[in-house]
Automatic annotation (TrEMBL):
Lipid metabolism as UniProt keyword: no
UniProt-recorded name of the protein: Pentatricopeptide repeat-containing protein
PANTHER family (alphabetical): (WILD MALAYSIAN BANANA) HYPOTHETICAL PROTEIN, PENTATRICOPEPTIDE REPEAT-CONTAINING PROTEIN
Pfam families: E_motif (PF20431), PPR (PF01535), PPR_2 (PF13041)
Length: 775
DNA sequence: GTAGGGTTAG
């Protein structure tokens, strides 16, 4: 109310010069410790003592003082002081002084009173180019590019700065053709307007257009400055145009800009992206001066070289840190799997009074998502609220993802619903969140409401179905995606290939392989790896091998997938040989690759070799064997008939045996006919797995093979009493688009009678089969 | 101490 009345009145004061005193304002209760309060008091004292010049002669110095004070009011927003100054300015007739007026605009804007600011602008602005540019820049900064453009169009005269503001903002929003149109309309260019345009191109992935403009600028005689060079180097580095970057580096050296701080900073990052750690370090070492950006770039260099210890040392020795250096530490520790340390760093950041920004929050929320620890996640959430970022779409999307990963998609939904402005990323996070939490119906419901879907929206659904092992649905929604005209990307294809890998649908997989070739993504690691997995699981190990050998770049997952594919296909020797290749290539084995290796050894009864690999896990690679590895070892011993050793191995395990550990032993006992150990093992299986049939079936098989029919009947009785029924084994075939599944003596198929007739013709002894599994 | 272009993270 107060603000409005002053603003409404101010116009009249300006013209009628009626009496208005700062004393008529409520006395602002400002802490005397703050400098602005002190200045304001001194100003009021001077005013009261009549020491401030008020005659037209000293108009200028009065305006200067007022402008300087107003500036303080917008730097650390002080509305009351600002209002008083506004009143004073009106009274003295200096409120339309250019410097006072722009400060007033800034003060109202910074204090959150944009309506009032816009009103005084409308009343006073007239044709002043300065205040128009100021307002245009502010409209643009706050996201209202249309308001900025309409002001631009209304301005009676403009300068190059007016054009630059518009061009830069249009480029930042990706409106390239509009930006070009305005840029071409500008009658006289400067190095700044050119740089804005060049950088706009490069940020929109059009580095060649940027470089053409860069050349054009030099041709018309405008010399690039340090900002131009910084932008061009960053653009070349970001788009991987290292050859072009080097020719620009030549110019930089010739013009001695290689001594400039910002140019050197961008050069460090360029060399890191080129993979030239030596040159990056050399630039850093030879810089005449360094700032927080240089040190943060060096930090990044350490992480890129995989040297966490050195990074930590650099971080601790840095003369200055800012929120970017903290975010770098948090993000990189999280990427290295050190999520707990990332969270610790975030707390340290708060203790150091560093104010987290959107990116710091995004990093630390992502770290708590990886930990799937609700306590940590909710702790970070409380800081989000404390710092007022809960309505930021970027932060909210990370929170939605974090809660969903912690299986709290209802809490995620609350955040989603509380957002007044939602972008597509929030929608996709929520769809993905439901998928991750296994709530595919809710995911689908939300997905259907999403009017403007992008590739990520479709990917969230597809990977959700895959994650929940609903592979058929994944393929269905993929078909719908293709039907909608949305182009699939690498994420889509890798998910769909994963679905195919788990369905008996090799033909579909081959089609997808062709699609990856068409999209030009077949050479990418993630796609190559998905292809290996799909072919291996579909039984086409030859194609899996080819996909593996054709990969130009392999990572640890690609190797692991191929080793596992071979092992699962019964090619134990080849699998072990590939594992040795993998170690020769210095690829660090994961715990999951050891599982495949132990499996391969087990199938070939390679007891010694198995123990060799098992021992090397901890000794050589520092990987503590998990329950699954111990189970694999029990399986290895049991299959080889070393049942007593297997039982002893279980008793010495440092982790508690799982039901499958005992099942492996029991299975060995069935094969090798050891009833004594078998009974003990069976008892353990049934105890650990009360609702499952595995233990009963194995035990009954063991009795059956020993001819102990009375015991077989007893086990069946026990099973019935426990209310358990064994599910039958199932085979299926695909004919065109349809799957046909068959159980033992299954009569559900519509053409069952014909099938069995044909079968009896082909395999006469089928008719004599007795179904031993039917209880 | 009146308005425009930038480097480091995500």
């Amino acid at each position: 109310m107060r603000v409005k009345s002053i603003v409404n009145l101010s116009h009249n004061f300006y013209h009628s010069a009626s009496s208005f005193s700062t004393d008529s304002l409520p006395n602002p209760k400002i802490s005397p410790r703050t400098s602005i309060a002190a200045i304001f008091k001194s100003f009021k004292r001077k005013l009261a003592a009549g020491r401030l010049p008020s005659t037209p002669r000293s108009f200028k110095s009065s305006a200067e003082t007022c402008a300087a004070l107003l500036r303080r009011c917008s730097c650390s927003p002080r509305l009351l002081a600002g209002l008083a100054l506004h009143g004073h300015a009106v009274k003295r007739g200096i409120s339309s002084d250019r410097s006072v007026f722009t400060k007033l605009l800034s003060m109202y804007g910074e204090c959150g009173h944009r309506d009032d600011r816009d009103r005084i602008f409308a009343e006073f602005a007239g044709s002043d180019i300065f205040s128009c540019n100021f307002m245009m820049a502010d409209f643009a900064r706050s996201g209202d590019i249309d308001a900025a453009c309409s002001l631009f169009d209304k301005m009676p005269c403009r300068n190059v700065i007016s054009w630059t503001i518009i061009v830069d903002e249009l480029m930042k929003r990706g409106r390239i053709s509009d930006a070009v149109e305005y840029f071409e309309g500008c009658p006289c260019h400067t190095v700044v307007s050119f740089t804005a345009m060049i950088n706009g191109f490069s940020r929109n992935g059009m580095i060649f257009d940027g470089l053409l403009l860069f050349r054009g600028m030099i041709r018309i005689g405008l010399m690039p400055n340090e900002v131009t060079f910084t932008c061009v180097i960053a653009g070349c580095g970001g788009s991987g145009e290292f050859g072009l970057a080097m020719s620009v580096v030549g110019m930089i050296v010739k013009t001695s800009f290689d001594q400039n701080l910002s140019v050197c900073n961008s050069l460090i990052t360029l060399y890191i992206r080129m993979g030239d750690a030596g040159m990056a370090r050399k630039v850093f070492d030879e810089m005449p001066e360094r700032d927080v950006v240089s040190w943060t770039a060096l930090l990044d260099l350490c992480f890129e070289s995989g040297d966490l210890k050195e990074a930590r040392r650099v971080f601790e020795d840095m003369p200055v840190r800012n929120e970017v250096s903290w975010s770098t530490m948090i993000a990189r520790y999280s990427q290295s799997g050190e999520d707990l340390e990332a969270l610790r760093l975030f707390n340290l950041m708060l203790q150091h009074d560093s104010k987290p920004n959107v990116s710091s929050f995004a990093c630390v929320i992502s770290a708590s998502s990886s930990l799937e620890n609700l306590m940590h996640g909710a702790g970070v959430h409380s800081h989000v609220i404390k710092f007022g970022y809960e309505h930021d779409v970027f932060v909210a999307s990370s929170l939605i993802y974090m809660y969903s990963k912690c299986k709290k998609s209802d809490d995620a939904r609350q955040i989603f619903d509380s957002l007044l402005i939602k972008n597509i990323v929030c929608w996709n996070s929520m769809v993905g969140g439901y998928s991750y939490d296994g709530k595919m119906e809710e995911a689908m419901h939300l997905f259907k409401q999403l009017v403007r879907k992008n590739a990520s929206s479709w990917n969230a659904m597809i990977s959700g179905f895959v994650h929940n092992e609903l592979y058929g649905n994944a393929l269905e929604i993929f078909d719908a995606m293709l039907g909608s005209g949305e182009a699939p990307n690498r994420m889509t294809l890798s998910s769909v290939l994963m679905a195919c890998a788990n369905l008996p649908s090799l033909e579909r997989g081959r089609n997808l392989h062709a699609k990856t070739l068409k999209l030009g993504i077949s050479n990418e690691v993630i796609i190559g790896t998905a292809l290996i997995d799909m072919y291996a699981k579909s039984g086409d190990i030859g194609s899996a091998r080819r996909a593996f050998s054709m990969m130009p770049e392999k990572n640890e997952v690609s190797w692991t997938t191929m080793v596992r594919g071979l092992a699962d296909s019964g090619l134990a020797e080849e699998s072990l040989a590939l594992f040795d290749d993998m170690r020769r290539e210095n690829v660090i084995p994961s715990e999951s690759v050891f599982l495949s290796i132990l499996f391969a050894c087990s199938h070939r009864r390679l007891v010694q070799k198995g123990f060799h690999y098992f021992d090397s896990m901890e000794r050589v690679y520092g990987i503590a064997p998990k329950e699954r590895h111990y189970t694999a070892m029990v399986d290895l011993l049991s299959r080889a008939g070393l049942l007593r050793e297997a039982e002893e191995f279980i008793s010495k395990m440092p982790v508690a045996p799982e039901s499958s550990t005992w099942a492996a032993l029991l299975s060995g006992c069935v094969t090798h006919g050891n009833g004594e150990i078998g009974e003990r093992a069976a008892k353990m299986v049934m105890e650990l797995e009360k609702e499952k049939t595995g233990g009963y079936v194995l035990l009954s098989n063991m009795y059956a093979s020993a001819g102990r029919w009375r015991d077989v009947a007893e086990v069946r009785r026990l099973m019935r009493e426990a209310g358990l029924k064994k599910g039958g084994g199932c085979s299926w075939i695909q004919i065109r688009a349809a799957f046909h599944a068959f159980y033992s003596w299954d009569s559900n198929h519509p053409r069952a009678l014909e099938i069995y007739d044909v079968l009896e013709l082909l395999v006469p002894e089928m008719g004599t089969f007795y179904d031993a599994d039917t209880y």
